[in-house]
Amino acid sequence: MGVLPQDLRYAVRTLLRTPGFTIAAIATLALGIATNTAMFSVVNTVLLKPFAYRDPERIVMFQNIFRSGLRTGSAAPVEFNWWRQHTTAVQYISAYAFDVANLTDESFPELIPTMQTSADFFRLCGVNALKGRTFTAEDDLPNAAKTAVLSYSFWQRHFGRDPQVIGRRMSLNGVSYEIIGVVGPELQGGQIAERSTLSGDIEVDRSPDVYIPFQLDPNSLERGHYFNVAGRLKPGVTLAGANTELQADYQEYARRLLDLNPGAGFDIQPLQAAIVSRVRNSLLVLLGAVALVLLIACANAASLLLARASGRKREVAIRAAMGASRGRIIRQLLTESLMLSFTGGVVGLAIGYAAMGALLRFGPDIPRLGLGGSNVNIDWRMLEFTLALSILTGVLSGLAPALQSSRADLGGALKESGSRSGSTSPRHNKTQALLVSAEMAMAVVLLIGASLLVRSFIAIRSVNAGFEAHNVLTMRMSLTGPKFANPADVTQVIHSGLRRVRALSGVEVAGTTCCIPLEDHWQVGFQVAGRPEGDASRGVAGWTFASAGYFETFKIPVLRGRAFTERDETGPPVIIINQTVAKQFWPDSDPLKGQIILGNDPPRQVIGIVRDVRDAFLNRDPRPNLYTPSVSRGGMIAWVIRTRSAPKSLSSTIQNELREASGGLPVGRVHTMEETLSRSTSAEGFNTLVMTIFGCSALVLAAIGIYGLLAYSVAQRVQEIGIRLALGAELSHIRKMVVVKGLGPALAGIVCGLFAALGLTRLLTSFLFRVGKWDPLVFLTVPLILVGVALVAVCVPAMRASRVDPVLALRQE
Question: With bands split at pLDDT 50, 70 and 90, how would you rate the model's confidence at 53?
Fold first, then answer.
C-alpha cells in the first residue's frame, strides 16, 4: 500500500473528526480562491485569450498620434488610401466600420448590425468562406455591384443554414444585395470589430450579421475620421521596423497632402493591445489587489492550522517516538492543508465564476467580455489557474504550521496531561500575532485603494457634463439607400418625424444628430479662414451634426450668437463652436466674425458659441467641438427628445410616430440619456465595485483572524486566567490583558499598512479623478474603521475571559 493513499485516508479521517475547524478553514480558503478565480476569469478573457485568427499576434491597428499625446485608431479615407499605396511593411491593409441597416425584405422591418469592410478584410483575418466567396478588389470599387457576405450566426438564424443561399438577394436600406458568401464562426464575438477608439452604431461586442464592401474611392482626400484600419505584418517584419517606416512615411504624407491634423505621426499597435489598452492597467491592478485577499485568506488558514497544531502536540510526539521522521510528519500535515485547499479550490471556482457572471451582467464597458459577460467561460486556463492557486494556497497556509509542529519537544509533550496538551508555545503565539499583523496591513492597503476609487467614482458621476440628461430619450434610425439619395428626401422624413414627435403632449422639444454625447465620437481637421498656415489656423475638433432643437433638447446654453434654425439647412454655410475652440483660436478677437473651413467645403460662418460639453469622457476635459446643420444628411441619425415625464413611458408612442413618418423604417437602440451616462462610467463603476468587494473581504477576513487568535488564546489560557482571578485579579484587568494582546498586532499591522499604502497608491494615480493619491480623508478614515473593527473583534474573547469560573478552571488542572 502506497504512502500517499495512507496520508490521504488519514487526512480525511482527521479532518472529519474536527468538522468545525474543517468548515472554517475551507470557507476561508474558498473565499480567497473565489475572488481570485473571479478576477482571473475577466483577465483571461480580455488579456490572455488570443483572437481566433491565424497568427493573431501579427495583426496590427493603424493609429494617429497627435502632438498632444492623444493616440486614436480612427482613420480617414485620405489616410487609408495613403497607407495602402505607400506602406510596404504591412499587407492586407483593411478599413472596417460598424454600421446598421434596415432589413426590409421581412413583414416587420428589422435594424440589423452590419460591417463595412474593404476587400482584404477576410484575408487579413485569415477567414475563408464556408459557402461561396468573400469580397474581391472589384467588389470594393466605387459604384460596383452590391454584394454581401453573411455571418455564420445570421445564416443559421435567418436562413436556417440553407446551402442554396448563395445567389439569393436581400434588401438592406432599400438596396438589393446579392449574397455571395457565408463566413465561418471565427468572426463571432466582435473581436477585430471592437469599438476601440471610434463610435459605431451597434452595441460593443455584438458581431455584425452582414458584411458589405466599403467601396471607398481610392483617390478620396476626405479627412473625416469614421472607421478603423488594420493590417497584417509581412513575414520577417517586426513591429519596431514597421513603425520606423511609418514615422518616416508620415513626413512625406504631411508635406504632399498638407495634413490638416496637427499630428506627430502614424503608428501601429498589435490589435489586441490596441483594443484592450484602456483597461489593461486597471485589470492588472485589480488582479494584484485580489492577490492580497488570497494572502489574507492564507494567513487566516495558517493561523487556524497553528491553533489546531497546538492541540496535536502529543499526537505528533507519539508518532515521532514510534519512528516517524520529521519529513514524514511534515508531509502528513501538508497533505491535510492541501486537501483543505483543494476542497476550497473546487468551492471557490464555482462561487467565483458565478459571482463574476452576476457582476458582469451590469454591463461594464470592457472590451472582449461580450454583452453581459457572455464571452467569459471556464476553459483550460481557468482550470490550470485554480489548480495552481489551490496548490500554492495549501503550501502557503500549511508549511509554517507543519514546520513548527514537527519540532515538538518529545519529552515535554509526552509528560503533559491530556488537559494541558493544548497549551501554546511562545513561538506559536508570535507566529499567530505576525499573521494577524500581516492581515491587517494588507486590509489597510486594499481598503485605502477601494476608498480612493469610490471617491473618484463619486467625483466622476458628479461632473457637470455640460448637458442635462434628465428626461431625454434617444433612438436611432438609418436613412440610407436610394430612397434617401436626394437630400430633400432626408429633410422631408426628419421634418415630418420632428413635427409628429413635437406634437405629442408629453414631449417638450426634439431634434436630430449624428452623435449622441458619450456614445459617438467623431472628429475632423479644420482651418480658420483667412489666416496664414500654422498652429493658430489649423486644428482638430469633435464634429457633431445637429438640427434645430438639438441644443434645446440637451439644454446646452448658447453663450453668444444663436442656435441652429431650420433656415440654416438651406441657407449659407454656418457653424457653431464651443468655448474651447473660441478660446484657442480667438483669444483676443470675436469668433462670430470668423469663418471655418472643413475639408474642401466652402468657408462656414461662425454663428454661435455654446458651452463646453464632455461628450467623449466625463473624466477628461471637454475637447474642441464644432457643430454643423445636419438635416439634409442621411445615414444613421439619432432622434433626441426631451419629455415632460418619464421618457420610457412615451417610447412606444414616439417609435410609432417615427415609423409612420419614415414609411415604416425600424427604430433601434432606444435609451435614456441617464442610461447613457451610467454606461459611460460603467468601467470605472466596475473597478470600484470589485475593489470594494475585495476590500470588504479583506476586512472580514482580518476581523476573523483577530477574533480567532484571541478566542483560541483565551481557550488555551483558561487555567492561567482562573489562577489570576483566584489570586484576586480584577475582571477589568483580565479584559484589558486580552484586549491589549489582540490590539497590539492589529495596530502594528495598521501602521505598516499605512506606509505600504503610501507607496502602492501611486499605481492608482491614473485611475483617480479629482482625488489625490494621498487623500487625507481616506488615510484618516480607513485606519479608524479598522481600529473599530479590531475592537469589536477583541471584545467577545475579552468578555469570555472575564466570565471564567476560577473554581472550574482550577479543577481542570
Answer: confident
What average pLDDT score do residues 422-439 get? 71
User: Residue 572: which domain range?
Assistant: 472-680
Same domain, 519 and 664: yes
Would you say 26 and 348 are in contact if contact means Cβ atoms under 8 Å apart? no
Q: Provide the whole-model pTM.
A: 0.79
Residues 6+ apart with CB under 8 A from 235: none
State the average pLDDT over residues 87-100. Answer: 91
Rounded distance, CA 280 to CA 116, Å? 28
DSSP β-bridge partners for residue 98: 115
pLDDT band at 719 (very low <50, low <70, confident <90, very high): low
Handedness of CA 23, 450, 796, 397 (dihedral sign): positive
Question: What nine digits make up the cell of 18?
Answer: 474536527
- Same domain for 157 and 287, yes or no, is no
Among candidate residues 123, 235, 133, 278, the one with its CA nearest the CA of residue 187: 123
Same domain (yes/no): 102, 202: yes
Clarify whether residues 97 and 74 are in a common domain.
Answer: yes
From 649, 680, 711, give the residue that closes a domain: 680
pLDDT tens for 382-409 read: 888 888 888 888 888 877 777 766 665 5
Backbone angles phi, psi at 606, to 5 degrees: -75, 120
Looking at the structure, do residues 326 and 414 belong to the same domain, yes or no?
A: yes
Structurally, the chain folds into a number of domains equal to 3
β-strands 210-213, 110-117 pairing: parallel
The amino acid sitting at 266 is F
Residue 466 pLDDT > 60, yes or no?
Answer: yes
Choosing from 659, 680, 701, the residue where a domain stops is: 680
- Tell me whether residue 721 is in a domain: no
What's the chain's length in residues? Answer: 813
